[in-house]
Amino acid sequence: MAEARGQATRCDPVAANRVAKFGAWLSLAICGVSGSLFAATPPASDGALDRPNVVLIMTDNHGAWSLGCYGNPDVKTPHIDQLAAEGVLFARCYANNAVCSPTRASFLTGLMPCQHGVHRYLGANEAQIGVNAYNTLEEFDTLPSLLAAAGYVCGLSGKWHLGGNLHPQEGFTFWTTKPHGHSAGFYNQEVIEEGRIRVEPTYLTDYWTNRGLEFIEANRDRPFFLFLAYNGPYGLGAAMREPIRNRHEQTYSQSTLPSFPRTKPHLWNHHYGEWVGDIEVIRKYAAEVSAIDDGVGRVMDALKRHGLDDNTLVVFTADQGLAGGHSGFWGMGDHTRPLTAFDWTTHIPLIFRQNGRIPAAQRCNLLVSNVDFLPTMVEHLGLTRKKTEQPAMPGRSFAAVLAGHQIDDWDNTVFYEFENVRAIRTDRWKYIERFRQSPNELYDLDADPEELENLIDRPALAQTQADLARRLHDYFRRVADPRWDLWNGGGSKSGLIMRELFNHPGPARRGG
User: Residues 138-169: pLDDT tens digits?
Assistant: First the structure.
């Protein structure tokens, strides 16, 4: 099968004021390319002094389609749009899994679930809270651990959902988070501060922003890493049935928000099919997106106010996407039966911005994945990996794009793994395979971008299907760690949704 490599690899800058308008994005040139106390921090190493501060803003269950800079005309996101206008927007970034904990683990380690062992969201208790709690990433290099080793002071404000939640992990010295990963609501919710759980009356989106700003204020004179990890917009469960109480209630109270498709629910909906077209849920999701945008604006204002704008790398992304009626689905790939790998639930925003170092007003069309994030950060920031006994990162660095260069030999292929579902996605094709379950799937994304017509086993596509299957099998044969390779008898650090299909359903702990 002929695959596109290095297509449209040149980035063309456009005027920032043109980019800032929603419609202008469609005509842009495509490129291929701890609590309340602050712990004492050792002096920064010489290497860190020449590196920028890093602010990683990550949202929860957030489809790229909901942002103005990705073409949405209804949802108000002026600050995120401005971030994109001043940096590089990756138009085709995909999560390698459907749910929170695995995708977050992949962002921070650069590894696939079959390498880091977190195959599903961590359930209540499990590794998160209680006598069995532990950090599921403890044996790996991670972005925060590498930055801490390089002399950065590291702070988390928001959702962790990777284990050992009561106490700072991975080099963090400032730590405020949630006891568990799910979001029952945004008001009067439990948070962790100084190793204790308490109820926080402040609207959580504002609370995470407030604490993040405290961290920036306290550490403005040293290299810092802030992981600002919102639990919004979320889009699921009781949180979406709360009345809108943030400042955007009037903004959306009468809006019909037509960018949320009103399609017939797909037969594979297991949860939330009845939410397709539900105007109250739609307005709530939009309001939560806009509240995050407010937080982004406050962070950018604080950086400018403290004179940190030119020396801070800001990254905006999401752990995984969410369908808001697209192709008849609401929710994520775990809200379907069988489990699925549709683009609507994996397409995520990814924006890099650093004034004076990263070129402005760039839109990059390389096909990238969250496993490419850590290799890129390692190269861009000049970090050195510390732990030798761990799997090799399968991702690829696109740091050259952030430096304003083109990449001529990038292979536009990404891979996906969610329990008994594995997939390969190229420019044109997506092939999905299931372990001990049917059906397998094949989609021609050029002709069928909504993935509605399964072409599996079509005689005319037999060679295409065979080539994709071979590449999929070769990839996982090469990268999988036998201990966490579910398809070949490995286990899981988390529970599993489809546990009846596997011999070792977990949860298991490294060395346990």
Answer: 999 999 999 999 999 999 999 999 999 999 99
Looking at residue 279, what DSSP letter applies?
A: H
Which pair of structure tokens corresponds to residue 222?
């040293």
Asked whether residue 75 is domain-assigned, the answer is yes
Query: 175 with 195: CB under 8 angstroms?
Result: no
Q: Is residue 1 in a domain? A: no
Supply angle C-alpha 29, 370, 412, rounded to 5.
Answer: 50
Whether the per-residue pLDDT at 15 is higher than 80: the answer is no
DSSP 445: T
Range of the domain at 92: 16-33+48-501
Cα separation, 82 vs 314, in Å, equals 12
* CB 22 within 8 Å of CB 71: yes
Q: Nearest Cα to 81, choosing from 399, 363, 323, 356?
A: 363
Residue 302 contacts residue 209 (beta carbons within 8 Å): no
Structural tokens at position 150: 């390089």
Reference 220, options 34, 41, 36, 35; nearest CA is: 41
d(CA 471, CA 467): 6
Check if the beta carbon of residue 335 is closer than 8 Å to that of residue 270.
Answer: yes
Residue 509 belongs to a domain: no
Both tokens assigned to 58? 């990550």
In terms of C-beta density within 10 A (0-12 exposed, 13-18 middle, 19 or more buried), how is residue 104 classed? buried
ω before 507 within 30° of 0 (cis)?
Answer: yes
Check: CB of residue 30 under 8 Å from CB of residue 363.
yes
Cα–Cα–Cα angle for 269, 270, 273, rounded to 5 degrees:
45
CB atoms within 10 A of CB 254: 7
- Here the CATH number for the domain that contains residue 205 is 3.40.720.10
Q: What is the pTM of this model?
A: 0.92
For the chain, the domain total comes to 1
The whole-number pLDDT of residue 3 equals 38
Please tell me the distance from the alpha carbon of residue 291 to that of residue 287, in angstroms, as a whole number.
6
Output the CA–CA distances (angstroms, integers) from residue 260 to 268, 289, 368, in the order listed. Answer: 19, 13, 25
Alpha-carbon dihedral sign for residues 311, 110, 229, 318: positive
pLDDT digits (tens, 9 = 90+) for 467-486: 999 999 999 999 999 999 99
Neighbours of 222 (CB within 10 A): 16
Sign of CA dihedral 413, 383, 36, 309: negative
Q: Is 31 exposed, middle or buried (0-12, 13-18, 19+ CB in 10 A)?
A: buried
In a domain, 42, yes or no: no
Provide the pairing of β-strand 88-94 with 362-369: parallel
